[in-house]
Specification:
The protein has 163 residues and is α/β, with parallel strands linked by helices. The protein has helices at residues 10-29, 63-70, 72-78, 92-100, 117-122, 125-130, 140-150, 152-158; strands spanning 36-41, 44-50, 82-88, 105-110, 133-135. Bound molecules: zinc ion.
């Protein structure tokens, strides 16, 4: 697993993360958590979605999950060549869904210190072998701003280190 951005173009990351941030803003405006996700293949956005926690009244309607289900059959064929951009580090459920969907590249903005995924990822060879790139802090400040605007309490939890 590579945690550098050497294999990627920084400006591509920011371009696609801005699209994910637009989705996050839409979610915040309608009362959902301000989290967006886009899935990219060969430079094209093939899916975009956002947290639908409130809209779908579901604890599992996270941005990454709903983005994956939007293009599920496409991912069966091309998942390995895709990158998912998400405005918050994937939670335990979404990370494993991303792995099962064969997506090998994950780029996120805001690190989730509450969920603290790195020890979980690094302790599990099945997951480590299936992620090529795991890149954080891309437009993190912009993601934090959306949290300040729409979900300040959640931001306090996610940016606090509990251990
Ligand atoms: Zn999630």
């Amino acid at each position: 697993m590579n945690i550098s951005i050497l294999n990627f173009n920084k400006f591509d990351h920011e371009f696609f993360m801005r699209e994910a941030l637009k989705e996050a803003e839409r979610a915040g405006k309608r009362g959902d958590r301000p989290i967006g996700a886009v899935i990219v293949h060969n430079g094209d956005i093939i899916s975009l979605s956002s947290s639908k926690y409130r809209t779908m009244d579901s604890n599992v309607a996270h941005a990454e999950n709903t983005a994956i289900f939007n293009c599920a059959s496409y991912l069966k064929k091309y998942g390995r060549e895709c990158t998912i951009y998400t405005t918050v580090e994937p939670c335990i459920m979404c990370l494993t869904t991303i792995v099962m969907a064969k997506i090998k590249n994950i780029v996120f903005a805001l690190e989730d210190k509450y969920m603290n995924m790195s020890p979980f990822i690094n302790s599990n060879p099945y997951i480590v072998e299936r992620i090529d790139n795991y890149i954080g802090k891309v437009l993190e400040v912009e993601s934090i701003e959306l949290y300040r605007k729409y979900a300040p309490h959640d931001l306090d939890i996610m940016t606090k280190i509990y251990n």
